[in-house]
Design goal:
Layout: E1 4-9, E2 12-15, E3 19-21, H1 22-25, E4 26-30, H2 33-40, E5 43-46, E6 59-64, H3 65-75, E7 80-83, E8 88-93, H4 101-129, H5 132-144, H6 153-170, E9 172-173, E10 176-177, H7 184-220
Parallel strand pairs: 1-7, 2-8
Antiparallel strand pairs: 1-4, 3-5, 6-8, 9-10
Length: 221
């Protein structure tokens, strides 16, 4: 068979079905549409051990591109396969949940309160650590020759500038995004997700190596 199948796999794949098909797991391109249609329905993995009724993250599995190639070659032995994506990937099975509007609102409110009071405490601790108030008093007295009453143009502009800087940094004002660039929180969440997936893959590889080593030792005995 002279056809070439191109595969692209992401490092993390979420599915809401117990049976993961090749079409749901990978992006596939081939000049022959019959090959694509056949392979898209081929089963790649089934979450038999997942517990029903769980909310999210009911089960995870770490698979390899070798598992995908094995499934494809079982159907089309002579098909040439080109992998353009990840070599190892994490598959997460989740159950669909009906959204609870009240619970979601409470979660959002809790996160907002934590961010607000946590940020306020951090800013106050920083200002107290560097003696911002004393610095403003000294600067105001040096420039105007008068004692500061604690609320001058310096404190006002500092507060406005701090608010504008926070808005610009987080790239949001209300529900609006100021630019198309990802926010710092989104970047950190993506980095965290990538590190978690990498750790899961490395742990799975290490456990597989230990099992193989244990098998060799038991076989030798």
């Amino acid at each position: 068979m002279s056809e070439i199948l191109y595969l692209k796999l992401e490092k993390h794949i979420r599915t809401f079905s117990r049976t993961l098909t090749l079409g749901a797991a990978a992006q596939m391109r081939c000049a022959d549409p019959k090959i694509l249609n056949r392979l898209k329905t081929e089963k790649l993995y089934t979450f038999d051990h997942a517990r029903p009724g769980k909310r999210t993250c009911a089960a995870r599995a770490v698979l390899s591109i070798l598992d995908v190639i094995e499934k494809i070659q079982a159907v089309y032995p002579g098909l040439e396969i080109q992998n353009l994506g990840e070599e190892d990937f994490v598959v997460e099975y989740s159950t669909k949940q009906e959204e609870n509007a009240l619970l979601t609102a409470l979660k959002v409110l809790l996160v907002c309160l934590i961010c607000f009071f946590g940020s306020a405490f951090s800013i106050m601790a920083f200002n107290n650590d560097v003696s911002t108030v004393a610095l403003f008093d000294s600067f105001y007295t040096l420039v105007t020759g008068r004692e500061s009453d604690g609320f001058t143009i310096l404190e006002l502009t500092y507060s406005l500038g701090l608010s504008a800087g926070i808005i610009a940094f987080f790239n949001h004002i209300g529900g609006r995004r100021l630019s198309k660039e990802p926010t710092p929180i989104e970047v950190e969440m993506r980095l965290y997700e990538d590190e978690v997936n990498t750790a899961l893959i490395q742990t799975a590889d290490r456990n597989e190596a230990h099992r193989q080593q244990a098998g060799k030792e038991s076989g030798g005995v």
